[in-house]
Amino acid sequence: HKIREQNIKLNTDFSKNIPPLNLDKEQIKACILNVVSNAIQAMPSGGRLFISTAVSDGFVSLRIKDTGEGIKEEDIDKVFNPYFTTKTAGIGLGLAITKRIIEEHKGRIDVESSYGNGAVVSIQFPTT
Q: Is the C or the N end of the chain the one with fewer CB within 10 Å?
């Protein structure tokens, strides 16, 4: 609903050969929704949201990229810290909890950004 309301163009590219993974579906869904929600919030006046999956080198990767304002260089290392936020709403626990859940599933989450050029969140899970 927010994607349409904010005039965000959604592009997806999902790999057709994702192997079964031993994950808690509801927890991982909540993590993905948190990252997508952050991307949407970063584009209040519209933009592009790219979501893709891939399989390579023993990992399933999920990549979420937005064309929002991006993350300031001095903040990039803090985004997974509990209670860190640059927003007026929220308490800064979303990405901290997301990281914990992903790591509990033996996964990894990384963020890349340059301020003014959006952000890319990459999540990887081992296939074994």
A: N
